[in-house]
Specification:
The protein is an alpha/beta fold.
């Protein structure tokens, strides 16, 4: 996003703030061991995010079904196996289904590590491969080949710049993607056609009303369902799953990575407010603005923090810390002031003491690094030139990061 008027884009006007300490328990005790982190502090922080930000979620479906709707061992000129899989939840109990597109490199022996990520506009937009099924789900935009909120063939390949499929395959990774709108259409009434209209209890069997959870929590739940499927796929190494998401889907990825430890690496690309950026800085997009524009993204309680960021019991560095000890990557773009690039960096930095406690290297930089200079150990970070987007540069860093950690 570029700059919208009426918001703060000046470091000098960032209010002074104090961040909640990821290494002090709610009762005020310092967290000094791996056991304290894993058994006490991590569950506390996770519960705070559930209660105050993203909401809870249902349990995994008891009887999901996986239908392979098409398969080719010779896709993309022989480079890949292409599979399309329809995931249905709870034995066709309701109509929502998640349509996964999976490419697996033919060039490697054994089970492949995989990047998982939602797309914004349907699987058919990530590549011009004519065999990709055209999505029949509701589309948010009415441009780029969508008419009356339905995709047309015109939309094929429209997002391919963000998805360097051949490059990912060449680097030895599989790619699994799905359209996030299959889980819940992205508008304030979208829940009526999404999974939030069906599940009424959370993982512990407690009642789950509409605003006890959120679209982001529903989308994140959907990402976990892709992992359930990948665990059944012998060509995939489910111990090496990297999760990537851009912008609102970066927020979703962070929450999915926090709630499901099967994601081995979590990547936030330009996720901004409600994602990697520190809410207390109120730089660019604010809590009030995001809750007003997107009332369905967060839970009921989060709305009580409009113009009141200092009272949120958590801040977003603690979301990043929830990945620990698993590697996490945060990326910002220079022209993306709406997402507060420096706030994303400071958040990665403030998460780093948790990694250090666990004997791992965090982001390893005191101030935001120069442009196009990736830094970090188990917490990766880069600040690239250009706008709010996912570029080949971003992907090359994520592929390098995955090489390093897998
Ligand atoms: C914007 C929103 C951001 C970001 C972005 C996107 O309108 O304010 O928080 O999520 O959309 O997802 O592209």
């Amino acid at each position: 996003m570029a700059q919208r008027p009426g918001f703060n884009y000046d470091e000098a006007n960032v209010p002074s703030y104090e961040l909640p300490d990821p290494l002090v328990s709610e009762s005020g005790n310092p967290i000094t061991s791996i056991q304290d982190w894993e058994n006490l502090r991590r569950p506390e922080i996770l519960a705070l995010f559930e209660d105050h930000v993203y909401g809870r979620r249902p349990d995994k479906p008891e009887n999901p079904t996986y239908t392979v709707t098409s398969e080719s061992i010779n896709a993309l000129g022989g480079k890949a196996i292409r599979k399309q899989i329809t995931i249905r939840f709870d034995e066709n109990a309701f109509p929502q289904a998640l349509h996964v597109l999976l490419y697996i490199p033919n060039s490697i022996q054994g089970a492949a590590p995989v990047f998982v990520g939602y797309n914004f506009n349907g699987n058919h937009t990530i590549h011009t491969d004519p065999s990709i099924h055209l999505s029949t789900s509701w589309m948010r935009t009415n441009s780029n080949g969508n008419i009356n909120h339905q995709a047309t063939d015109e939309a094929r390949g429209k997002s391919s710049k963000r998805w360097p499929v051949e490059r990912i395959l060449e680097r030895g990774y599989a790619l699994a993607t799905a359209y996030y709108g299959d889980i819940e259409p992205d508008h304030s009434e979208g829940w009526k056609d999404g999974i939030r209209s069906h599940y009424k209890t959370d993982e512990e069997g407690k009642s789950l009303e509409l605003e006890d959870w959120s679209a982001i929590s529903a989308w994140a739940w959907g990402l976990s369902r892709i992992v359930d499927y990948l665990e059944t796929e012998s060509a995939i190494d489910a111990k090496r799953i990297a999760l990537i998401g851009h912008s609102r889907l970066g927020k979703t990825s962070l929450w999915a990575g926090a709630t499901d430890e099967r994601f081995g690496i979590t990547i936030s690309n330009n996720s901004g407010c409600g994602g990697a950026a520190l809410s207390r800085r109120a730089f660019g997009e604010t809590v009030k603005r995001i809750n007003t524009s997107f009332p369905h993204w967060f839970n009921r309680i989060f709305k009580s923090y409009n113009d009141n960021e200092a009272t949120i019991p958590v801040d977003q560095h603690q979301l990043i810390a929830l990945m620990a000890p698993r590697p996490v990557y945060v990326a910002s773009a220079q022209k993306d002031l709406w997402a507060d690039p420096n706030g994303e960096f400071l958040s990665a930095k403030a998460a780093s003491p948790v990694y250090e406690l666990l004997g791992l290297k965090g982001v390893g930089a005191k101030t935001q690094p120069p442009l196009n200079t990736p830094v970090g150990g188990h917490v990766g970070y880069h600040f690239r030139t250009g706008k709010h987007d996912v570029t080949l540069y971003d992907w090359e860093q994520y592929l390098d990061f995955a090489d390093k950690h897998f």
